[in-house]
Structures are given as C-alpha cells and as structure tokens.
Amino acid sequence: MASSNHFNGFAIAVILLPAIAFATEYVVGDDKGWAINFDYQAWAKDKVFYVGDTLVFNYIAPNHDVYKVNGTAFNDCIAPPDAEKFTSGNDKIELKTAGNKWYLCGKSGHCSTGQKLSITVSNSSAPQPAPSSSSAPSAIFVSVYQVFIALTAAFVVVNHVV
C-alpha cells in the first residue's frame, strides 16, 4: 500500500510540474531594464508570451514605475489613478490571462520617450524554452524536471510499482 501512495505522489508531481517548468521569466529590456529612450516594442517583437510567464521590470525606484493600463491609456501615455501601479524597482508581473497587455512608466515624459510596452499573451501552452539569457532559469528547471522523470521511471521499474 505504501508503494501505491508513493506512486500517487509521483503521478501528481508529473502532472503539475510541466506547467511550472515551461513558464518563462522575461526581464523587460534585458540588461537595459525599464528605462527611457529604449524601444520596448522592438525588444518584444520576436518573443512569444504565454499565460503563466512573468514579466520582470527592473529599474531604480523612485525614478520610474510601472502602470498596467488599457489600450487607450497606453496610446495616450496616461497613467490613470485607478490603474494598477508597481513601484518596487524589481516588479514581477505574472501573465495570468490571454490577450493584449499594456504597461507604461507614469513619470512625466517617460512614456512619450518610449518607456512603454505592449504585448499579446497567448492562451496556448508554451513550448519547451530554449536556453537563453532571458529563459535560463526555466531551462535549468526543465532539466531538473527531466531528471526527476527519469528517476521516477527508474523507481517504478526497480520497485515494480504499477
């Protein structure tokens, strides 16, 4: 009976870990971070964002901030007082839903100098990420997950748990 309980635990882990393993953490602007005079649309152009991914906005607080806004506020470079605001300098925003997402800096003149980001988030499952500067932590986790699966299979074979 104990072997069956161990197998159930492994089965649950096998089901849950892929969703965690495939999420990617994107540092917005890479080494430049969240700053003025940077083309964030060019930065995002070749990236595919999925539900479960995380955007990380790195900047020196209080020189900048991040507002999560709608398309109109984004186009007009307006940070509405009721919009969600981030001010830590290391803001992590999980992409929880599919669709268009808009972010801008609310400091005077920053949005108009390019400190704004518009992305589209896909509801599809993310493919396994390739190792890169922005996804290295996820790639390492995927490798750990693959080792976990191999060890689980070896455990099942050795203990004849079915």
Automatic annotation (TrEMBL):
<keyword id="KW-0813">Transport</keyword>
<keyword id="KW-1133">Transmembrane helix</keyword>
<dbReference type="Pfam" id="PF02298">
    <property type="entry name" value="Cu_bind_like"/>
</dbReference>
<keyword id="KW-0732">Signal</keyword>
<feature type="domain" description="Phytocyanin">
    <location>
        <begin position="24"/>
        <end position="123"/>
    </location>
</feature>
<keyword id="KW-0472">Membrane</keyword>
<dbReference type="GO" id="GO:0046872">
    <property type="term" value="F:metal ion binding"/>
</dbReference>
<keyword id="KW-0479">Metal-binding</keyword>
<keyword id="KW-0325">Glycoprotein</keyword>
<keyword id="KW-0249">Electron transport</keyword>
<dbReference type="InterPro" id="IPR003245">
    <property type="entry name" value="Phytocyanin_dom"/>
</dbReference>
<dbReference type="InterPro" id="IPR039391">
    <property type="entry name" value="Phytocyanin-like"/>
</dbReference>
<keyword id="KW-1015">Disulfide bond</keyword>
<dbReference type="GO" id="GO:0005886">
    <property type="term" value="C:plasma membrane"/>
</dbReference>
<feature type="signal peptide">
    <location>
        <begin position="1"/>
        <end position="23"/>
    </location>
</feature>
<keyword id="KW-0812">Transmembrane</keyword>
<dbReference type="GO" id="GO:0009610">
    <property type="term" value="P:response to symbiotic fungus"/>
</dbReference>
<dbReference type="InterPro" id="IPR008972">
    <property type="entry name" value="Cupredoxin"/>
</dbReference>
<dbReference type="GO" id="GO:0009055">
    <property type="term" value="F:electron transfer activity"/>
</dbReference>
<feature type="transmembrane region" description="Helical">
    <location>
        <begin position="139"/>
        <end position="158"/>
    </location>
</feature>
<protein>
    <recommendedName>
        <fullName>Phytocyanin domain-containing protein</fullName>
    </recommendedName>
</protein>
<keyword id="KW-0186">Copper</keyword>
